[in-house]
Amino acid sequence: MEDIIRANSNNYLIFRIPQLFGNLIRHKTIINFFYKSIQQQQQFNIFDEAYRYVIEINDVKKLVKAYLEFSNQCSIVDLANPYRYKVFDIVKILEQLLEKKAVYRILEKEDKYKLDFSEMKDFIKTHSIHMPFGPDYLFNKLKEKIT
């Protein structure tokens, strides 16, 4: 899809967004799946070597708005908290915030990838955009949603 856009347009911004989350309602995202499963005490599987990048929807809106205002044409940008979470740690964060133990099985399987956030980091720094990214990002954002 990106190739089609690049080939047929001379003015585009393509945003790659990994694990998006917002209100914890019925959406088919990993965060909402874990949230619902823990709330309802439903068993699920976790890959022991699985990692995810996350971003909250309001932070996506903030960044996209800034890109539309300030960025160069014809860019492809990965948008997310640059901190990569182990999926097991995402579940632990939700358990802590919900004060409930999840029911899960750990499977020996790898599912990880790395993204390049250099363009986004440079953009944020250049335009002095406050983004609370870092290891505590997911906990703090989910805490706002749950409490």
Side by side, the strands of the main sheet go: 6-3-7
- Using only C-alpha atoms, the radius of gyration works out to 17 Å
Q: What structural category do the secondary elements indicate?
A: alpha/beta
Q: Name the CATH superfamily assignment.
A: NAD(P)-binding Rossmann-like Domain
CATH 2nd-level architecture: 3-Layer(aba) Sandwich
Q: Judging from the principal axes of the Cα atoms, what is the shape? A: globular
**Termini Cα gap:** 39 Å
Order of helices and strands: HEEHEEHEEHEHH
Q: Ranges with pLDDT <50 over ≥5 residues? A: none
Task: State which percent range the strand residues make up.
Answer: 15-25%
* CATH fold title: Rossmann fold
Q: How many helical elements? A: 6
DSSP E strands, number: 7
CATH class: Alpha Beta
Helix content: 40-55%
Molecular structure report:
The chain has 147 residues and is of the alpha/beta class. It has a single domain (2-146), classed as NAD(P)-binding Rossmann-like Domain (Rossmann fold). It has 6 helices and 7 strands, in the order αββαββαββαβαα. It has helices at 2-8, 30-39, 57-70, 87-98, 118-126, 137-146, and strands at 13-16, 19-21, 44-52, 54-56, 75-78, 85-86, 104-111. Strands 6-3-7 form a 3-stranded mixed sheet. A two-stranded parallel sheet has the order 1-5. A two-stranded parallel ribbon has the order 2-4. α2 crosses α4 and α4 (87-98) packs parallel to α6 (137-146). The protein is globular, with a radius of gyration of 17 Å. The mean pLDDT is 93.
What order do the helices and strands come in, and which of them pair?
Elements: H1 2-8, E1 13-16, E2 19-21, H2 30-39, E3 44-52, E4 54-56, H3 57-70, E5 75-78, E6 85-86, H4 87-98, E7 104-111, H5 118-126, H6 137-146
Parallel strand pairs: 1-5, 2-4, 3-7
Antiparallel strand pairs: 3-6
